């Protein structure tokens, strides 16, 4: 088991040009999430949902990893106590920044899923409601994204890692969406130290033992280099 568990959110990809959700101008200030990020919305209007994720897929594929993604990959490579990297993000910037075995608890924009037989495959750049599943042929393809009301992926593995960790670090997440928002409480209850790295500390004082405020591309590399110097 790793001694460090890192949870990232949209803030770690913000400086790569990918929008966050709840900041000023964030995605959920411009779209009705019930229309584009729920199974009911997809059933009502698959074209709208595919268009929404086609735009996000294009943005993600055209974006580049930033210094925070690279620093976290370096931490996972160099920190001998082991690092488990969990992300709420659906982009692949952690992987393109060099990270391996990233746990995508909300799915991946680069993957497609058949709503009938649950086969998964690499998503094409543009998905369409008329696409058929390569395995069962059903016209029921969807982005392999966890929508509101659906169970996030890899929860058992994530909770086990947090319960065994000595340090839990939340980076660039507003801590507003469960179950990810509750991970800090599991870590604290298991005796881990907790650290938040965020542009602005989340409003709940005392939720984390320590808070580092600043943009991820500066705060994360600084924190990683300091940690690697200490070990
Ligand atoms: N550096 C560090 N943190 C930043 C930066 C930055 N450059 N820019 C923004 N942030 C922080 C904001 O202060 C905020 O706390 O990133 C956080 C973004 O919060 P949200 O927009 O709520 O994104 P996130 O926490 O990832 O949302 C969680 O909600 O809608 C669902 O599935 C979606 O995975 C998403 C989940």
Descriptive notes:
By secondary structure, the chain is of the alpha/beta class. The mean pLDDT is 96. The chain is globular and about 55 Å long. The strands form two sheets. Strands 3-2-1-7-8-9 form a six-stranded parallel beta sheet, sandwiched between helices. Strands 5-4-6 form a three-stranded antiparallel beta sheet. The chain contains nine helices and nine strands. The longest helix is centred in the N-terminal third of the chain and has 17 residues, at 46-62. It has helices spanning 27-30, 33-36, 39-44, 46-62, 67-78, 93-96, 155-164, 183-189, 216-230, and strands at 4-8, 83-87, 103-104, 107-114, 120-122, 141-145, 167-171, 193-198, 210-213. It folds into two domains: 1-18 and 64-106 and 152-231, TPP-binding domain (Rossmann fold, 3-Layer(aba) Sandwich); 20-62 and 108-145, SIR2/SIRT2 'Small Domain'. It binds adenosine-5-diphosphoribose. Adenosine-5-diphosphoribose binds at residues 9-11, 14-15, 20-23, 26, 88, 106, 172-174, 176-177, 198-200, 202, 215-216.
| Major beta-sheet overview | 6 strands, parallel
Structural class: alpha/beta
Ligands (ions, cofactors included): adenosine-5-diphosphoribose
Strand arrangement in the largest pleated sheet: 3-2-1-7-8-9
Per-chain topology:
Elements: E1 4-8, H1 27-30, H2 33-36, H3 39-44, H4 46-62, H5 67-78, E2 83-87, H6 93-96, E3 103-104, E4 107-114, E5 120-122, E6 141-145, H7 155-164, E7 167-171, H8 183-189, E8 193-198, E9 210-213, H9 216-230
Parallel strand pairs: 1-2, 1-7, 2-3, 7-8, 8-9
Antiparallel strand pairs: 4-5, 4-6
The structure holds adenosine-5-diphosphoribose.
